[in-house]
Q: What sequence folds into this?
């Protein structure tokens, strides 16, 4: 985290915004990249005044929405064979277990799985391609995609920005303490979201093999 933070500080603000949007966009297409780490690190930079929080959040939201839409188009064209190929290439992130978990999420929540999955690291990688492969109607997908991207991007950015600025004000004689506190807040929020995802997974009954294929008909 701190290595990423230090590296971002060496870049001009416009490069930081482009990097945030690019990494999150490619991640949302279905390629495992550290989008969450880049967003958290950039939000912490905003707390120190290096970049502007509104532009960090806007770049993150744009990358999430556009990337998911591209992932949707690729998934719709490539279908389940594409997901299988991605699983073989990235077995740790997109293997059969992760795909089954994402399908259960769609079976339970329909198109709004796209919204909820935005807050879970592994699931948001699959949300766009899986929605396309399952032929979820694009208008409904876009609504859930935009809502999830905006809430996730602006919520994460301004949460960390506010905590970092408050810590810097209270502890201005120890400048690094504000950064440490903001990092702890970011890690705590990530831990809570992952714990919520595990609880949802544990509460879901095992779905029949044919159920995920019918998920799109429920939307």
A:
């Amino acid at each position: 985290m701190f290595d990423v933070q230090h590296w971002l500080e060496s870049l001009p603000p416009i490069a930081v915004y482009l990097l945030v949007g690019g990494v999150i966009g490619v991640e949302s297409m279905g390629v495992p990249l550290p989008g969450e780490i880049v967003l958290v690190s950039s939000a912490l930079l905003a707390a120190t005044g290096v970049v502007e929080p509104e532009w960090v959040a806007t770049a993150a939201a744009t990358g999430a929405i556009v990337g998911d839409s591209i992932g949707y188009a690729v998934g719709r064209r490539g279908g389940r064979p594409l997901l299988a190929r991605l699983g073989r290439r990235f077995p740790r992130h997109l293997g059969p277990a992760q795909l089954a978990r994402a399908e259960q999420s769609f079976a339970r929540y329909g198109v709004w799985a796209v919204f909820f999955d935005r807050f879970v690291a592994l699931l948001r990688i699959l949300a766009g391609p899986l929605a396309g492969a399952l032929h979820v109607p694009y208008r409904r997908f876009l609504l859930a995609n935009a809502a999830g991207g905006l809430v996730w991007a602006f919520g994460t950015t301004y949460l960390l920005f506010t905590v970092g600025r408050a810590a810097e004000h209270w502890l201005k004689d120890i400048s690094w303490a504000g950064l440490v506190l903001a990092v702890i807040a970011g890690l705590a929020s990530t831990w809570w979201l992952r714990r919520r995802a595990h609880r949802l997974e544990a509460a879901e009954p095992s779905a029949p093999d044919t159920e995920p294929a019918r998920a799109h008909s429920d939307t």
In short: Confidence is low (pLDDT under 50) at residues 206-219.
